[in-house]
Amino acid sequence: MQKNRRQFIQKMGASVASMAVGSAAIASNKPAPEILHSSIRVSANDKIRIGLIGAGIIGHFDTDTALRVPGVEMVAACDLYTGRIEAAKEKWGKDIFTTRDYRELLNRKDIDAVLICTPDHWHQRIAIDAMKAGKHVYCEKPMVQKIEQGYGIIETQKQTGKVFQVGSQRASAAAILEAKKLVKAGTIGELTFVEAFCDRTDSRGAWQYSIPRDASPETIDFNAFLGNAPKVPFDPIRFFRWRNYSDYGTGAAGDLIVHLLTGIHVITDSMGPNKIFSLADLKMWKDGRDAYDVVNALMQYPKTSQHNAFHVSTRVNLADGEGKGGFGIKLVGTEGVIDIGWNEFTYRTLKRKSAPGYGGYDSFESFSEKGKAEYKKWYAATYGDDMGGYTIGEEKRFDSPKGYDDRLDHMIVFFNAIRTGSAIVEDASFGLRAAAPSIACNLSAKLQRPIGWDPVGMKLVG
Ligand SMILES: NC(=O)c1ccc[n+]([C@@H]2O[C@H](COP(=O)([O-])OP(=O)(O)OC[C@H]3O[C@@H](n4cnc5c(N)ncnc54)[C@H](O)[C@@H]3O)[C@@H](O)[C@H]2O)c1
């Protein structure tokens, strides 16, 4: 790789988010300039060749997005369902290598990096095998299905030195990175708590995905899908709607709270909570699933060198009757609030007066006339005419540039790390620190008690 180009991409890596979301965007209340990724020039030997493992819903999004990064080429796809192998050839070319066995894909010398987009119960095994086979890994969230699976990935990444990034794109999202600047600058005072939610209403939102009409033991390698999960007879519902079963997925908490915690951890530079308490139920989608559809969780984040102690209250509601849908992270500080949607946020600050004021809903109203007169006199002598209270500042808004795609920024971070060795925020330790408390919500709901977690040592405690 030429030096100039490396320097250029390094610069891009460091500044891609800030180019997209410069503070000027907030000050002027106008969209920031488009990301300049399209101006990356790549020489022929600078290509990064990728293979996709798991060509389902997100496999398509991730691959299409990766291919928007200059110099990235698609050479192979692996999936267990014939229809998805056909679809991969239709979309990415009839000459790509395809297989049902991911080990065949990993054996190929022409692949530099893999995107792991399989169900959760396969993430750890494939990620470890891939890094050992010399591939860089972009592994979808949650990094692992079971907390203890995280250690093997962390260890293998250290041993192999391969780039490993978890695919919760909130880690690179413009709105998250810009909100982080405000929190770090103390704009909303001391962070006291965070409310974070993900609400869905319709059946696809609740993971009742379409099942192709040709689904059969001939078109699907069901045994390979099961892997180490308990053996059950062929069942296309389990195959296409695996999220609804704890044998393969991590439930609403592991699947969706992980996105929320990823955002919160990036903004606060937190390693995670030390206590997790959750209540969960299956309220509506009683289709044979064993996953909850309503989860409410409280988490305690202890003080660290990076932040003061704060609480997180979070929920996933797949049975939401309000019907607005949505995803939000609201950071409430002592002097303001930031309300983040997906690619945008609003914020406002608040100023308290130093004088306490009196009257209204106050003990002053219960004083005798004499007592009131005495108090007024004393107050005027002490505080003058300052009647206390607070003022709420004007609401300001940040919008990511039109057409902004946080997944693309996340891919750029991944490929820049491969090309230049630049840092990965959502590495294996970060991935476990976001996944574990999310997965622990299931355990807390089941045991009906708080779960202790050591966010530094990454271990369940108590
Ligand atoms: N980052 C995000 O926004 C986001 C969004 C959706 C899903 N995801 C994550 O992506 C992953 C995939 O989710 P999905 O909705 O695309 O699932 P999906 O069911 O649509 O696709 C999964 C595919 O993996 C294949 N597969 C299963 N086991 C395999 C194996 N051992 N080897 C090769 N292929 C195998 C299946 O054939 C299937 O086509 C999950 O971990 C999910 O949590 C992330």
Q: Tell me, rounded to a whole number, the average pLDDT.
A: 91
Number of domains: 2
The CATH topology of the largest domain is what?
Answer: Dihydrodipicolinate Reductase, domain 2
Question: Can you say what the CATH homologous superfamily of the largest domain is?
Answer: Dihydrodipicolinate Reductase, domain 2
| Distinct compounds present | nicotinamide-adenine-dinucleotide
Distance between the termini: 50 Å
* Main sheet properties: 11 strands, mixed
Q: What's the CATH architecture of the largest domain?
A: 2-Layer Sandwich
Point out poorly predicted stretches.
Answer: 1-39
Structural class comes to alpha/beta
Number of distinct beta strands: 17
Helix tally? Answer: 14
Strand proportion, as a percent range, falls in 15-25%
Estimated helix fraction? 25-40%
Oligomer: single chain
Using the CA coordinates, give the radius of gyration: 25 Å
**What's the CATH class of the largest domain, please?**
Alpha Beta
Shape: elongated
